[in-house]
Specification:
The structure holds two protein chains of two kinds. In chain A, a hairpin with a 4-residue loop joins strand 1 and strand 2. Chain A has a two-stranded antiparallel sheet with strand order 1-2. Chain A is mainly α. Chain A has 20 helices and two strands. The two termini of chain A are 42 Å apart. Chain A has a domain of 243 residues. Chain B is mainly alpha-helical. Chain B has three domains: 234 residues, no CATH class; 266 residues, no CATH class; 75 residues. In chain B, helix 8 packs antiparallel against helix 11 and helix 18 runs parallel beside helix 22. Classes of the chains: A mainly alpha, B mainly alpha. Chains A and B meet through helix 7, helix 12, helix 14, helix 16 and helix 17 of A and strand 1, helix 5, helix 6 and helix 25 of B.
């Protein structure tokens, strides 16, 4: 047992989760002192980031057991407890969350003109929700954090967004909320079905739920409910259409968190709940999910290719990249799962950076239309270099983070099925196409407006907010083992869990037909 | 030896980082100091390394575990053997000379520091490509050299054509790398490792079908990088880059990576005769196909570009028929003389103030003496003039094809050799001989500065003599013996030079000289002939001039449909169907709500009445169900 008392001596997960929210409450009390409340926000997110590093430092990376466990009864009559713990996957994503939350504070220092304080408070609450989701070990607690995360984002898009912000916010809310409702029903259902006898309290504790075995029908239904909720977040085709609208309307910081962390919550949920709880359903449905992932990879890339708005382009590219996540995870082998997680991590860094860059460009040019740009490498050489770096990392250039995850998830998929692996690889060609074509149209060719020479290149503040992402992108590309070691035991635990359920052999097509039989 | 192996790539890398970061603000026009020095040291170390290897030393060195995910384990490690050593020597020699040359060529360019930084990055990547000890490292640095190529092709990025060419190069290479990547995955899935030694030692367990699939997938990558039909389209466009780049990357080093890959994987390829045949077939077709385009191009660099594509085809013919050392020999020789020819063309362009159209040149012979004479050496070498480098290397390729029983490849090679001699001397006569066609440009024409002419002279030396040094006696020369340990397992019977070979050799020499004479007839003696011949050839002439419309074909069949598909998916599926469904269901619930609104009227008697109706309905239902 890895109790927090023994491991570190204070409830680090609770602190990590609630520190931002507490800071947010403090800010609400300090009306009208912009410098001071921004300082509080910066200090809180910085402290949280350092804490997340402390967490990694104290984390035992040689075990798959849950660590830093905190468990206090919450609603005893319903069997709900305040149960927090983490494994390598959550630790990595917590660090990513803390980092991105820290970065967006200086990045939007002068960005917001109205209700500035509420803007920062919303982000602090959002951080609490996100980190809570990664820590919760009780299903109801998980659901609570899941909803906490939804609300600030709704306001961030709806209040500080672009012209069509209301439509985008409502769309975002409806898509995700429809998923959440399905999940809530499934949570309650399995909590009651997992009881030892009709008079026992329901089971919300994931440790216990993982040991329960559900009937095939229950697994299928509950899996689908959870899966749809997570698939909306990822987002998987065809549940992705809220994403481009949300991104286009959201302020830069919103896009960064949305793409950087919120999409990962979907993949995380699949790893944390779908696979361990419903292995039979996973085996039956995996081929179908892989097909959807391939569609997402190719479809997202094709649609990204023809986008006119820079933000939409990056948004659709996320659909394509996240396809590699689900493809890797549902290949159900160690290489694939580790690849999928690495793609999540890398996509968080890179897409976060790309959205920041789009924001920086927008602040200068007041447009995001690609057709209005061109030749910007002239006035903004540093920005061109940095954008090229993140573009290349994003298209999977070896030596940077994008490649490692993508390649591993492709190897995993290829191991599962050669044709599927081959089709997914087309996405790699297409990624180069839409990203380089974008870069060319933005930075290369003739400058459209000589006035732009008067505009400043990247400022120190902007460079500082991008630098950690760039450093991590190189680190994860050159020495990915740092991160792979962190997730390996947890990923291995998942494949061990799946091993007895995996049917031997058969091509992907055969498996799809076999699973058709399983459906009925 | 380990230190040398580490320093060879790391010095250029360090120079790249320093020049890249501080060049703009601090080094400025002195940016080349560090980068030239770094490459010079790398060159010295490469010479040291080949001497060590010659003495029989080898290096297998695992440096660190790079990726370890489950069963997928890949190391960063070095392998130095004869093949690596010889590649290092070509890369570092041409690289060093190109760095020196660029001091003069790029002088005064706004992106001077950037240029040298990119060149250094390229040197690092290319060194790592040939030093790596596993397929994934090969792939990694394969992509890295591709990146440098991209950066340098679109170096003058304000030009639309340069920006397009860079993107095109990267994308076409990605198409090849799609196959390469799948090949690597197939290797991993089949044998569970990616290190060269691990893979080569477990070949016995692989079925023939899988083996052929692996080879063809790997070769797809080689076709991209080494510009073989149908993935050759990027290389001619890559001439948009500054000429030193064309020389270093797009003639002497990077484009050889495909040849190196096939040579390195010789144990796999030799297990699959079918794959080998495909390699030779693609090579032979490309050799003659590209040469035919080269015959009619008017841009001096485009001629050389198609020539490069054609010569790379030769190398693949050699590898494909199993004449492994001949292929490598031609790679080395071609690296030197094609590097020289490109630098020479750069000197011409420099003299003409940026003009690349040969129809506006002429008569430069006396104004640019050094350029002229070194260019002639290079052209004679590539034409297979007896005694020069290309004579021996090309002959060993042709003889290899002939001896292995592929007389048709030999014949194709011979025809391509004739074309090569013709277009090279067409280029020389149009550029250096005759009357100047553009008086104004000619008046300003001048010989290039010493930083440019010295590299020409230096590279002219190996272009002239390397054949004599390495290629004698033919087919069992020094280079064959040097590379023997690498290809030991896959080499056939040693060939003994006989009367037949002497005959073949004479024939190919005569063919080369014939091509030169024909060019002389066309462009010096009877300048009216080309137009007449062009008119006579009609469709064929236009086809070659338009590069057989392959670019247009790709646009019509791939690029435009893909874009249309993207737009269609976006407009119809995303916005139309999916959003339509989502918005429709929102409207549906809205509508249901609206329809039900009157029922919430607040009038008690209506509620009572509906309760009564409901009770009645339940009662009826209950009665029906129970009876």
């Amino acid at each position: 047992m890895y109790d927090f008392q023994e491991q570190i001596g204070f409830p680090i997960l609770t602190v990590l989760t609630f520190l931002p929210a507490v800071a947010g409450l403090v800010m609400l009390l300090m009306r009208g002192k912009p410098k001071a409340y921004k300082g509080v926000a910066l200090a809180a997110t910085a402290a949280n980031f350092i804490l997340s590093l402390v967490l990694i430092a104290y984390f035992d990376r040689y075990t798959a057991d849950m660590q830093f466990i905190e468990k206090v009864p919450w609603i005893s009559s319903l069997g709900v407890s305040y149960h927090m713990s983490v494994d390598g996957i959550s630790v990595l994503l917590i660090m990513l969350t803390a980092l991105l939350s820290l970065i967006i504070i200086p990045a939007s220092w002068n960005y917001i003109k109205e209700r500035e304080m509420q803007f920062f408070v919303a982000f602090l609450f959002l951080e609490t929700g996100l980190i809570g989701v990664f820590c919760a070990r009780d299903l109801l607690l998980f659901y609570v954090f899941w909803e906490i995360m939804l609300i600030p984002m709704y306001f961030i898009i709806g209040i500080w967004g672009g012209p069509r912000r209301i439509y985008a916010a409502v769309k975002f809310f409806l898509f995700t909320f429809a998923g959440s409702l399905l999940m809530l029903i499934a949570i309650v259902a399995i909590a009651y079905l997992a009881r030892a006898n009709p008079y026992a309290t329901p089971v919300f504790d994931m440790d216990l739920l993982e040991k329960s075995i559900f009937s095939y029908q229950v697994q299928m239904l509950a899996f689908l409910a959870f899966f749809i909720a997570f698939a909306v977040k990822v987002p998987m085709w065809p549940l992705h259409t809220w994403l481009p609208d949300a991104h286009v309307e959201a302020p830069t910081a919103g896009s960064v968190i949305l793409a950087g962390v919120m999409l990962k919550v979907g993949g995380y949920g699949m790893l944390r709940l779908c696979i361990p709880l419903f292995p039979d359903a996973v085996v039956t449905l995996a081929p179908w999910i892989l097909v959807l992932s391939l569609i997402a990879i190719i479809y997202g890339a094709l649609v990204s290719l023809v986008q006119k708005d820079l933000k939409k382009l990056v948004a659709y590219s996320s659909v394509s990249h996240m396809g590699f996540v689900t493809a890797g995870i549902f290949a159900l082998n160690l290489v694939g799962i580790e690849g999928g997680i690495m793609v999540m991590f890398s996509h968080g860094l890179l897409t976060g950076a790309l959205f920041l860059m789009v924001g920086f460009l927008y602040e200068r040019l007041h447009t995001r239309e690609i057709a209005d740009m061109g030749g910007l490498a002239g006035p903004f050489p540093v920005m061109a270099g940095v954008l090229l770096f993140f573009t290349l990392a994003s298209l999977g250039l070896p030596g940077l983070s994008g490649f490692v995850g993508e390649f591993l998830s492709l190897v995993g998929l290829f191991t599962y099925s050669k044709p599927l692996g081959a089709i997914a690889s087309i996405g790699v060609i297409l990624a180069a196409a839409y990203l380089l074509w974008m870069f060319q149209r933005v930075m290369f060719t003739k400058l459209r407006d000589e006035k732009w020479y008067k505009l400043p290149d990247l400022s120190l503040r902007e460079i500082v907010s991008l630098a950690p992402l760039a450093i991590l992108a190189v680190w994860a590309g050159v020495y990915p083992n740092t991160f792979l070691q962190l997730i390996q035991p947890s990923a291995a635990r998942l494949t061990e869990k799946m091993a007895p359920y995996m049917a031997e052999g058969g091509s992907a097509v055969e498996r799809i037909f076999a699973s058709l039989g399983g459906l009925f | 030896m380990k230190t040398a192996v580490l320093l060879i790539p790391l010095l250029p890398l360090a120079s790249f980082i320093i020049t890249g970061l501080f060049g703009k603000r601090y080094f400025k026009e002195k940016s080349h100091y560090l980068s030239v020095a770094a490459v010079a040291v790398s060159w010295l170390l490469s010479v040291y390394l080949i001497v060590q290897v010659e003495r029989g030393e080898e290096l297998h060195w695992q440096v660190y575990s790079w990726i370890a995910a489950g069963s997928f384990k890949v190391e960063i490690g070095f392998l130095v053997d004869q093949l690596t050593a010889i590649m290092l020597l070509v890369v570092s020699t041409v690289g060093f000379m190109v760095h020196v040359y660029s001091i003069g060529y790029m002088k005064g360019d706004g992106g001077y520091y950037r240029f040298f930084a990119y060149l250094n990055l390229f040197m690092f990547s290319m060194f790592m490509l040939v030093l790596g000890n596993n397929f994934l490292m090969l792939y990694v640095f394969w992509e890295a050299v591709g990146l440098c190529s991209y950066l340098l092709i679109s170096f003058w990025y304000t030009k639309q054509s340069a920006a397009n060419a860079g993107t095109k190069a990267f994308l076409v290479n990605r198409v090849g790398d799609f196959g390469f990547g799948l090949g690597i995955m197939l290797i991993f899935v089949t044998v569970g490792t990616l290190s060269y030694s691990g893979v080569f030692s477990s070949l016995g367990s692989i079925g023939t079908g899988t083996m052929t699939a692996i080879c063809l997938l790997l070769f797809m990558g080689a076709m991209g990088k080494s510009a073989q039909f149908p993935l050759h389209v990027w290389l001619p466009d890559a001439m948009e880059g500054p000429t030193p780049v064309s020389s270093l990357i797009h003639a002497a080093t990077m484009v050889n990576a495909g040849v190196y890959m096939v040579a390195r994987s010789s144990p796999i390829f030799s297990h699959s005769p079918n794959a080998m045949f495909v390699v030779a077939l693609v090579g032979a077709f490309t050799a003659i196909f590209a040469a035919s385009i080269g015959l009619v191009q008017n841009d001096i660099k485009k001629v050389l570009a198609y020539s490069t594509v054609s010569q790379l085809g030769y190398m693949f013919v050699a590898l494909g028929v199993g004449a492994w050392t001949a292929g490598m020999f031609h790679l080395v020789a071609h690296g030197f003389f094609k590097g020289l020819l490109f630098l020479g063309s750069g000197s011409v362009i420099h003299a003409m103030g940026g003009e690349q159209d040969m129809r506006k040149m002429g008569g430069l012979k006396n104004k640019t003496k050094i350029t002229y004479w070194t260019f002639v050496i290079g052209a004679l070498a590539i034409s297979g003039f007896p005694g020069l480098a290309g004579f021996f290397s090309k002959d060993s390729v042709l003889a290899g094809a002939f001896h292995k029983g592929f007389w048709y490849f030999w014949l194709v090679g011979l025809v391509a050799a004739f074309m090569t001699a013709f277009y090279m001397f067409r280029l020389i006569f149009m550029t250096f001989h005759g009357k100047p066609r553009d008086e104004k440009a000619f008046a300003h024409a001048h010989e290039s500065p010493r930083s440019m002419t010295i590299p020409l002279i230096v590279l002219a030396v190996p272009s002239a003599i390397i054949g004599l040094l390495l290629g004698l006696p033919p087919e069992s020369g020094h280079i064959d013996h040097f590379l023997e340990p690498v290809f030991e397992a896959v080499m056939g019977e040693p060939v003994h030079f006989g009367l037949l070979d002497a005959g073949l050799m004479t024939l190919s020499a005569l063919i080369g000289i014939g091509g030169i004479l024909l060019a002389w007839l066309f462009y010096v003696k009877r300048p009216d002939l080309p137009a007449k011949a062009g008119a006579r050839a009609g469709f064929l002439y236009r086809a070659a001039l338009n590069k057989y419309w392959i670019d247009e074909f790709y646009f019509a069949v791939f690029i435009n449909p893909v874009r249309a598909l993207g737009r269609g998916l976006w407009r119809w599926v995303d916005v139309g169907i999916i959003d339509g469904f989502a918005n429709g269901s929102a409207r549906f619930f809205n509508g249901v709500g609206m329809a039900l609104k009157p029922s919430q009227s607040g009038k008690a008697q209506v509620y009572l009445f509906s309760m009564f109706l409901g009770f009645l309905a339940l009662l009826v239902a209950y009665l029906i169900l129970t009876i």
